[in-house]
Amino acid sequence: MRIVLVGPPGAGKGTQAAYLAENLAIPHISTGDLFRANISQGTPLGRQAKEYMNAGHLVPDEVTIGMAEDRMMQEDAAGGFLLDGFPRNIGQAEALDGFLRAHDLKLDAVLDLEVPEDEVVKRIAGRRICRNDSSHVYHAEYSTPEQPGVCDECGGELYQREDDSEETVRKRLAVYHSETEPIIDYYKAQGLVTTISALGAVNEVTARAMQALGRD
Predict the structure, then answer these.
(1) Which residues are catalytic?
(2) What is the DSSP string of 54-106?
């Protein structure tokens, strides 16, 4: 299967993508992983991306598209893939359509993870990270430490990342609504979109997604 996963920040795309890709036995292709891999390997596209990032500029669509196309051409993606974070705008969606047509392929589904905006803000703004180990993550409401502000694992100080502040989260949501959300209507016109509630336990959301794909 060839699937695009869409949803606002805080919808749990990364978590769901990993579970779905494992259940469907297809590679999970995320924009973040593409950038890290290309930059660490020093590929031409990675070097271009690094130049833009070091200068504080957004990486142009053509670089992101090139990375995604290279990854989709790899052997493990021959039987399908799950795209997470790509396409992020109409231009990238059109480029993806062109790539698929050129290789006589098509998308099977676009899964739209839906979550209320206030819930997104609550999820992200409540996150607290250990200064000693960023893999130790807590939440002010859902996963509190035994002692306020102190990591249960190592005793490190818990803090809120600047990117997780409510103001920043709302700015990220505004960008999502203006740039990425329009691809949902773009794919609806192709009859590909299924909207799934991203509320509830992780396994419940995964079950809804698998049912939408006819794999329950």
Answers:
(1) 13, 88, 127, 161, 172
(2) HTT-PPPHHHHHHHHHHHHTSGGGTT-EEEES---SHHHHHHHHHHHHHTT--
Query: Tens of pLDDT along 41-77?
Result: 999 999 999 999 999 888 999 999 999 999 999 999 9
| CATH number of the structural domain spanning residue 175 | 3.40.50.300
Angle between helices 44-54 and 31-41 (to 10 degrees): 100
The count of domains in the chain is 1
Report whether 193 contacts 3 (CB < 8 A): no
Give the global pTM. 0.89
Domain extent at residue 194: 2-212
Q: Is 161 annotated as a binding residue?
A: yes
136 annotated to a ligand binding site: no
